[in-house]
Design brief:
Shape: extended
Strand content: 35-45%
Distance between the termini: 46 Å
Structural class: mainly beta
Radius of gyration: 28 Å
Helix content: 10-25%
Largest sheet: 4 strands, parallel
C-alpha cells in the first residue's frame, strides 16, 4: 500500500501541475467492496468500477458514503459471452441504476475474442442504450480491436472486417489495395503455392502453378496504379494486372509477367511513409540502368549500388510533418562482395530526393539486415542491424 500511496500522490501532483486531461479509475482489489471496506477512504477522489456480479448489489443504486458506495461510479460488465449479455439485460431492466445519470459510459472489461465483441455489441444495440454509450476496456493489440469491431461496410482508413470463405490453410497473408481493389495474397500451407483472393470475389481463390509460385516470405506491393507485384527473397517476381472483367463484374488478376532479378524489377522490402506514399527497396537492372538495387519513393527512383548481387534488404521510413520531410533508411546485403551497405535518403517537396551513403555496416553477409527509425521531436535516430553488427547512422 505504501508504494500505491506514493504513486497516487505523484500522479495527482503531475496531473494538477501539467493540466492534462487524465483520470485514473480504481478496479479489482482497490475497490471498496465487501471485505475491502478499508478502501473506502483511500485514493480520494478517484472513483472505482462497479461489477454487478462481484460488488455489493445495493452500491449500484446508492451513493451512501458510510458504506463506500459513493466510490462506485463506473458500471463495469464482464466480457465473456452470454453471461455478459445477461447482466446487460438485467441492468437495462433497472435502467442502469444510478449509473444512468453519471458521466461515465457503460464499460465492458477486457474482451479478447472477436465473437465476444460481436455478441456484446449486438445485445447492447438491441435494447435501451446507456445515456453515455458503450465503451470497451481492452488489453489486446489496438490493431486487433480495430479489426474485430470493424464491419464489412466500414469506410474508414483504419480497418474492415470481411470473411474470405475461400481462403484456407493460409500462412503469411498480405493485404494490398490496387486501383481501389482489395487483394489478399498468401501462401497455401499445404501445397506451398502462392494464392490470392479479392474482396469483390471472396468465395473464389486462385493460385499460381507450381512452376510460377514463389517462396515465402513474400513481398507484395501495388507497383503501378493497376498492377500488383509479388516477389520473394530469391529475386523472383510475378506481375499482375488488376481490373474488373467488365463494368460491375468481379475483379480479376491477369498474369502479366514473371522473371528473376536478372531481367526486371523485384520488390524485396517495403515501408510506408505518410504524405509521400510508399517506399520500396527494389532490385533493378532493366530499362538501361546498371543498378543492382534502387529505392523507389512515390515514383522517384534513386540508384543505391551498381553491379551488386542483392537478394536481401530492408527499408524503413519516418515522417517529420513539421518540416514536410520523409526520411528513409535502406540496407542491402551485397552477395558479390560479402558486405552489408546502408543509405539514408531524404525527400521533401521542394528539393526532391537527396541520397547519402553508402556506409559499410558489415563485411560478412548472413541473414537479412533490418533497419528501424525512431523520430523524437526534430531528431531522427536510425539503426541498421546486420547479423553481428548494430550501427547508428
Amino acid at each position: 500500500m505504501a508504494v500505491l500511496r506514493q504513486f497516487f500522490a505523484a500522479a495527482t501532483q503531475t496531473i494538477f501541475q501539467a493540466g492534462v486531461n487524465v483520470e485514473f479509475i480504481l478496479d479489482g482489489a482497490l475497490t471498496p467492496g465487501y471485505v475491502r471496506g478499508c478502501m473506502r477512504s483511500e485514493f480520494q477522489p478517484w472513483v472505482s468500477t462497479w461489477v454487478p456480479s462481484r460488488d455489493p448489489w445495493e452500491a449500484g443504486f446508492s451513493d451512501d458514503p458510510a458504506l463506500g458506495y459513493d466510490r462506485f461510479q463506473v458500471l463495469d460488465m464482464q466480457a465473456e459471452g452470454l453471461a455478459a449479455g445477461l447482466w446487460v439485460d438485467i441492468m437495462r431492466h433497472f435502467t442502469y441504476g444510478k449509473f444512468s445519470a453519471d458521466k461515465y459510459p457503460l464499460l465492458v472489461w477486457e474482451p479478447s475474442d472477436q465473437a465476444d465483441f460481436a455478441l456484446l455489441s449486438s445485445l447492447y444495440l438491441a435494447g435501451r442504450p446507456h445515456p453515455r454509450g458503450l465503451m470497451f476496456s481492452i488489453n489486446i493489440d489496438p490493431a486487433r480491436f480495430e479489426v474485430f469491431t470493424a464491419t464489412d461496410r466500414d469506410s474508414s482508413d483504419t480497418a474492415w472486417n470481411f470473411a474470405f470463405p475461400s481462403i484456407v490453410n493460409a500462412t503469411q497473408p498480405h493485404v494490398v489495395v490496387v486501383d481501389g481493389h482489395t487483394v489478399v495474397v498468401y501462401t497455401d500451407a499445404q501445397t506451398g503455392l502462392t494464392c490470392w483472393a479479392t474482396r469483390e470475389a471472396p468465395h473464389r481463390a486462385e493460385c499460381l502453378t507450381e512452376e510460377l509460385s514463389l517462396l515465402p516470405p513474400l513481398s507484395v506491393t501495388a507497383w503501378d496504379p493497376a498492377r500488383l507485384l509479388i516477389s520473394d527473397y530469391a529475386g523472383r517476381y510475378c506481375v499482375f494486372d488488376v481490373a474488373a472483367a467488365h463494368s460491375g463484374g468481379p475483379v480479376r488478376l491477369a498474369h502479366a509477367a514473371y522473371g528473376t532479378a536478372g531481367s526486371s524489377s523485384a520488390v524485396i522490402a517495403t515501408a510506408r511513409g505518410c504524405v509521400f506514399g510508399a517506399c520500396a527497396l527494389v532490385l533493378l537492372v532493366d530499362g538501361g540502368a546498371s543498378c543492382g538495387a534502387a529505392l523507389r519513393v512515390n515514383g522517384q527512383m534513386a540508384c543505391l549500388c551498381e553491379s551488386c548481387v542483392v537478394k536481401r534488404g530492408s527499408v524503413a521510413a519516418a515522417m517529420d510533418d513539421a518540416r514536410g520531410l520523409l526520411l528513409v533508411v535502406a540496407a542491402v546485403a551485397d552477395q558479390a562482395r560479402g558486405r552489408v551497405l546502408a543509405w539514408t535518403l531524404r525527400l521533401d517537396a521542394s528539393t526532391g530526393m537527396v541520397s547519402e551513403g553508402p556506409n559499410l555496416i558489415a563485411s560478412t553477409v548472413g541473414d537479412t539486415p533490418s533497419v528501424s527509425i525512431v523520430h523524437h521531436d526534430r531528431d531522427f535516430f536510425m539503426c541498421v542491424q546486420a547479423p553481428t553488427v548494430v550501427a547508428m547512422l
